[in-house]
Amino acid sequence: MAVPRNALKKWEKVRQYALGLPSATEEHPWGETVAKVNKKVFVFLGVDDGSYPLGVTVKLTDETAHAHALSCPGAEPAGYGLGRSGWVSIPLEPAGAPSAELLCDWVEESYRIIAPKRLTAELDAR
Question: Which Pfam families does this entry report, sorted A to Z (predicted)?
C-alpha cells in the first residue's frame, strides 16, 4: 500500500521539526519512529513504510488544542491508556487532515509538556 505523497511530505516536515527542538533525539522502539527529549517520548511518528496509515500522536493538555486535534478526521485518543493523559493520535492521510504547520504547533506543545524547563526556556530564547 503506497503512502499518499502529501501525507508523506507532511510526516517528514513534522519529523524534521520535532528533531530540531532542543535536545530532541530520534529512536525506533517497537519498529516505530519516536522523538524524545530527556529520554521521554514527546511525539510518536509511527512507521513510514506504508504498513500502517501515516499519523502522529502528541500529548495535548490545553483543552482547546486537545478538542481541535480530536475533531480532525479519524483522530482519536491514543491507545494503551495514553488517551487518558491527553495523548491524541492524528492520521495524516484523510481528506481534511491538519496542515504540517498545525501539526508542528501540536508537536511543540507536546514537547513543552514533556521537556525540562531549561529546554523550554532555550526554545523560547530562539
Answer: YjbR
